[in-house]
Amino acid sequence: MSARGWWLFVAMSLLWGIPYLFIKEAVDSLSPAAIVCGRTLLGAVLLLPLALHRRALRPALRRWPWVLAFGAVEMAGPFLLLGHAEQTLPSGLTGLLVATVPLFAAVIGIVAGDKGVLRPLRALGLLVGFAGVAVVVTGPGLSFGDGTSGLVAVGEVLLVAVLYATAPFIVATKLKDVPALGSITLSLTAVGLFYLPIALLTQHGMPTLRSTVSLAALGVLCTAVAFIAFFALIAEVGPVRAPLFTYVNPVVAIVLGMIVLGERLSVGLLVGFPLVIAGCWLAATGGRFRARPADLPPAPG
After folding, report:
1. Dihedral angle at the C-alpha atoms of 229, 235, 239, 244, nearest 10 degrees?
2. Per-run averaged pLDDT (10 residues), the chain, 301 residues
3. pTM for this predicted structure
4. Which of 3, 31, 127, 165 is the most exposed place for a label (fewest CB within 10 A)?
């Protein structure tokens, strides 16, 4: 990998590892709907000139029903669920649970008839990964409010992982001929406008400076800049190696949660974390260090 490729890899590891910290800060005084609205509209405004310059919007508009479906599955649902869940869950735990995307992608592959997912090492990865999630959630030392709200929040984040695992199937089957930049820009715009009236109705009071700065960082860094960097990484190293940074994202989320927010590293998280990452890697690659394109996990957006 070239030096530029490594820099882009590091950038993506950070850009999609830090959203959980910013979401945790933003929900302190912003409603989840306001966060989704602000993040998506800001990202859309920044990406729109680039999309127009590359003439990527017209092909996306021709497939607008599927672009909207992609936006709902990749952005509208996950962004809201993450904001609501992080009102209860630590940011590091949220980042780790989202990292289960490859596990759910493998399960979806089984349902879709992909027999390769049932190869011994990949099947073992599913078992190890989900066992790691169970250890993280039920292990000693984890505190996330009362039991009911905490379990509901965990379920919300796992649903986010399911949605993130589903979205690439829409792209691969319905939007494969549409420029990604066009699909993403149009999706961000539609989601932001959809949530605008909801944000106005649910936001009460003036947000704090920390929440406002975090929201701006989500829109600029974790949405607009992140997608541009991701496109550049794919162009530099190809689609086979580009998504591998997803295995680093939860490490970034957990470390930042500990350093910035003072979140504790529980025994359950300490034991379950390597199980989740190992399980995801096995389920996605079958134990190969040079995976085939079809075996790699989709990158959460």
Report:
1. -40
2. 82 91 95 97 95 94 95 95 94 90 82 72 85 82 65 92 87 87 94 97 93 96 89 72 73 91 85 87 70 48 45
3. 0.87
4. 3
